[in-house]
Amino acid sequence: xxxxxxxxxxxxxxxxxxxxxxxxxTSKTDIVEQSILQFAAKVNHKKNNLLQYAGTLSENDAxxxxxxxxxxxxxxxxxxxx
Length: 82
Description:
By secondary structure, the chain is mainly α. The chain has one domain (11-71). 62% of the residues lie in helices and 0% in strands. It is built from 3 helices and no strands. The protein has helices at residues 11-24, 28-51, 59-71.
């Protein structure tokens, strides 16, 4: 069951939603729902991409990487055995 909610959107966003709904022959609700689901999938995909590296560094390599990041936030010249 769908629930009515209230929130404020910028006029440009409202016009974009309306134009998409008209072009795609669907409801504005469907446009918003699909947009939110796609955004959530994108965010979760980024999280999963980072998690794939969890545990790949040895403890010493991870410590060296953290020290390097803290020492110089623009240069990461550290070799790792992945």
